[in-house]
Design brief:
two-stranded antiparallel sheet; OB fold (Dihydrolipoamide Acetyltransferase, E2P); about 110 residues; about 40% strand; five-stranded antiparallel beta sheet
């Protein structure tokens, strides 16, 4: 495994936000949700496409805090422009488990 310097890590802006809206994304190549996430007043709302349909439905996502990279450039995914990358871990069966704080923190909090 390649090692990195601490400065490399600090360039990745990982923030906590709360999912405020979830829509189906039928145009995605793999099953996905279109999320709208509130990262607080400094960053605001961001959109993301997330392939997390195996473990999460819209009702389980609304109000849930997630961790996302907010300083990647926007990425066009079919007809949708994704503005952040929601993070998670692959299980052995391929399902993605979201990365999130284990207690509530203010939206926009940065991973340190």
């Amino acid at each position: 495994m390649e090692t990195i310097e601490f400065e490399d890590f600090t360039r990745v802006d990982l923030r906590v936000g709360t999912v405020v809206d979830v829509e189906a994304f039928p145009e995605a190549r793999r099953p996905a949700w279109r999320l709208r996430i509130d990262f607080g007043p400094a960053i605001g709302m961001r959109k993301s496409s997330a392939q997390i349909t195996d473990l999460y439905n819209p009702d389980s996502l609304i109000g849930r805090q997630v961790m996302a990279v907010v300083n990647f450039p926007p990425k066009q995914i079919g007809p949708f422009m994704s503005e952040c990358l929601v993070t998670g871990f692959h299980r052995e069966d391929g399902a993605i488990v979201l990365c999130a704080p284990d207690a509530p923190v203010p939206n926009g909090s940065r991973l340190v």
